[in-house]
Amino acid sequence: MNIWAWVWDTQEKLEESGNERLAELIERLPTAALDDQNAEVEAIVPEALGLARSAGLPWVEIFIRHWHLQATGDGFEKVPYAVETLDFSHQDEHRACPQSVCTVQDLARAYSGADGPGYAHERLAVVEEALERIDPSWDCFHCMIVEKVEALTDLERHEEALTVAREGRAAAAAAGRDFSHAESDVTNPLLGLGRYEEALESARPRPNEKDDTFARWRRLSRADALIGLGRLDEALDELLEPEVALREPRYQRSWVQSVERLVRRGRFTNDWRLGGLLERMVAAQVERGRAWDGVRIGAVHGRLALWRGARVTAERALEDMRALAARLREPERAEEQLRALAAGLERMREREPVLPDTADAFLEAWQADVGSGPEQDLERLEAARRRWPDELAVAWGLHRALHAVGRREDALQVLRAFADAHADDVDAQATFGHALIDAGEVGEEVEALAERVRPLDELHAAWLGARAAYRADDSQGARELCELILERDPEALNARRLAALACEELKDFDAALVHRNGVLEHAGDEVTDSDHWDRLVPATIVGDWDAARESAAALDIELQSDSGPIDEEYGLVRLRFAVDDFVVALRTGPVSARVLNVGLGKEPQHAGDRVVFDAGPIGTAAEGELVTFPVVHVLAEGPRRAYPFDGVDPGDDAWAAFAKTLGEEGWVIDVRYSTDYELEVDGETCRGIYGHLAVPDDVSDEAAHARLGELTADWDGPFTWLPLAEAAGDEPASARQREHAEALALY
After folding, report:
1. Tens digits of per-residue pLDDT, 473-527?
2. pLDDT per residue over 629-652, tens digit each?
3. From CA 81, how far away is CA 89, in angstroms rounded?
4. CA 660 to CA 85: how far, in whole Å?
5. How many CA atoms lie within 13 A of 337 on its CB side?
6. Quick one: CA dihedral 318, 322, 328, 330, positive or negative?
7. Partners of 645 in the beta sheet?
8. Superkingdom, according to UniProt (predicted)?
9. Using an 8 Å Cβ cutoff, are 664 and 652 in contact?
10. Residue 351 half-sphere exposure, CB side, CA atoms within 13 Å?
11. pLDDT at residue 500 in the model
């Protein structure tokens, strides 16, 4: 059964019935899941489920639940949800749903992530039962084979797993299905058998593969195989970037085990930074309820900590391992690893660090010791806290060290305990409050701290409230509190900066500019380049060109004009309108641009928009890539009616004249394909050109169609704008262009 045919049919019916939003969400959900965009998945699911239930579409609900579980459903925390989804999908009226079989895989994956070997036999049983309901022509046949292979691999029955994988692929091929692009069902058993050359070939990159979950699993497998073959430089190149592995807990065991092997071969640095990364990975395993992988990652974490002499880190790893082992179906399976780490700690006997006579002397010596790292600092900072429990600087140092090694909640607990023990100390309360806000904790605890601070320092209580409100997306609340502070203290620069940000979020750019000007007025020698970049945003939006030019001069930006509006050409930039909405634009000023892309169909439309963007780039652009900036405000929208064009490229000069003429008349021309796009016309190969054009709002379809006819009348090869010709009602021209489109396979 082709599940995707059902999905496409469902989307079409939803759009026809006016449920375009639900159709859009079920189209996006699988892609987000396969791209490991789990935050987006979590944002999509509640809305999609609500729409599906309101429309009375239980099969769509099963589809949504399945992809939700595919993204984040591997662990004890999602087992109840997986069981509930399986039961729901197997009700009599739902069993015919194409994805009811997929919920069997979801349950198997949940238990696999929780404790793979512990539930391997049960996983085999449910998968065998599901395989009896389907045949190799089904999309989900391969998914079931993968789950069977993974269960056998967890039982270390690698030869059997390899046989199952190969027989499954052969059966699928006989049914006309090719799953060679998908998950590494063959690769994992080969790795388990130590057949590294074969595993490397199995996990080779696929032609034109995108960076999704399948490609990332192949990279992990290639790194594993290359280490086994001793090709360590190549293994390092294949190893997933740490931030990618950190983002998705499923990748972490393979990544960590490869890193340990590289550390032991002297090819990966074993320092506190690695320790902090592994600490966060263990925490991710705990959060998702991935007990068996968590135990194994914790064991590596502990071993590497012992190797670099980080006793406190190794103790924490042992503590986490014990908690995770207790969740295993057979806790004794972790005993050997637990005993090994405990024995290593026993050999590293605890010793009390020698401290100076005073806290000030300790802090001075600690800060001067640039050779130590946060892991080594933990022992003496813990000892210092025991000796000087009333020193905020010592507590803050311990907080920073714990944060650096990935123990975020422990770091907050240090400041929490200090604040509770020093309820009348404004600095203690404020330090803890700001740490909570920086960690994204802006709920009741921060409110309680602000109330505790208010009788001691009303303005600082307001500042805590303002920061918390802004972090909680309450821009109006943040603005009001900042302006309350500024009434009492006009030189409170950070309050001015935050007030400006809040006003910008509220689209009150005149007020934002007042606050940005106030920062520059009161900062004196503390003015930064960022303050001028920040002022450029509201100044450009409201058209205060004197202020904009003054800040540009302060930043040594050479403008091409001396006065008036800034509308120049500085090259291309990439702009982000939303999380999945990016365009290319021509930069027209320090923080302004004009969009060059033209959207069609379901693509967002920003053609010709004049926008202001934040000067702080998003991420770091690789060499040869455009820098990406977030859009702050649309100054003016461009044309919204868009049509495709397609045909033979008339040549560089003719095309340049065509695009220049239409551009001057307010059109937006967006060439999507020209390089390597070829058409065969009358037996000759010609260069093709395809793209989108946006028609000015004051130009009718009829006039636009006629204008294109005028400008292309002398071109030799067929060039078409069929949808626009049809919209203009010119049937003879439409017929000619339709004939060209069919003959040349255009559009």
Report:
1. 999 999 999 999 999 999 999 999 999 999 999 999 999 999 999 999 999 888 9
2. 999 999 999 999 999 999 999 999
3. 12
4. 57
5. 25
6. positive
7. 691
8. Bacteria
9. no
10. 9
11. 97
β pairing state of 572-578 and 641-648: unpaired
Residues 6 or more apart whose Cβ sits within 8 Å of residue 602:
24
**Helix (H), strand (E) counts: the chain:** 35, 10
Q: Which DSSP string do the residues of 440-475 spell out, in sequence order?
A: T--SHHHHHHHHHHTTT-HHHHHHHHHHHHHHTT-H
Tokens read off for 47: 């809305």
Alpha-carbon gap, residue 156 to 602, rounded angstroms: 47
Q: Give one DSSP letter per residue of 333-400, joined into a string.
A: GGHHHHHHHHHHHHHS---PPP--SSHHHHHHHHHH-TT--HHHHHHHHHHHHHH-TT-HHHHHHHHH
Q: Which of 485, 464, 466, 486 is nearest to 476 (CA)?
A: 466
Query: How far apart (Å, rounded) are the C-alpha atoms in residues 17 and 520?
Result: 55
The rounded distance, in Å, linking the Cα atoms of 689 and 125 is 55
Phi, psi of 671 (to 5 degrees): -80, 120
Give the integer Cα–Cα distance in Å for 329 and 354: 44
Percent of all residues in the chain with a pLDDT value above 90, rounded to a whole number: 82
| Residue in the structure block whose two tokens are 């780490």 | 341
pTM for the predicted model, two decimal places: 0.74
- Whose CA is closest to 81, among 95, 96, 61, 97? 61
CA atoms within 13 A on the CB side of 87: 6
Helices marked H in 116-251 = 120-133, 139-154, 158-174, 187-192, 196-202, 213-228, 232-238, 242-247
Listed residue (496, 488, 563, 564) closest to 534, CA to CA: 496
Least confident of 192-196, 379-383, 412-416: 379-383
The yes-or-no verdict on residue 177 having pLDDT over 80 is: yes
86-100, 302-316, 579-593, 631-645: the lowest-pLDDT one:
86-100
DSSP 626: P
Give the separation between CA 628 and CA 618, rounded to whole angstroms.
Answer: 5
The C-alpha atoms of residue 301 and residue 309 are separated, in whole angstroms, by 12
| Angle 589-591-597 from CA coordinates, rounded to 5° | 80
d(CA 170, CA 164): 10
Structure tokens at 484: 């309350």
Q: Is the pLDDT of residue 351 over 80?
A: no
Residue type, 19: N
CB 550 within 8 A of CB 531: no
Give dist(CA 630, CA 533) in Å, integer: 14
Tokens encoding 679: 């058409």
Task: Output 185 or 543, whichever has higher pLDDT.
Answer: 543
The pLDDT, as a whole number, for residue 601 is 84
Secondary structure, 3-state, 306-340: HHCCCHHHHHHHHHHHHHHHCCCCCHHHHHHHHHH
What is the spatial distance between Cα 77 and Cα 324, in angstroms, rounded to a whole number? 13
Tell me how crowded residue 747 is: count the other CB atoms within 10 A of its CB: 12
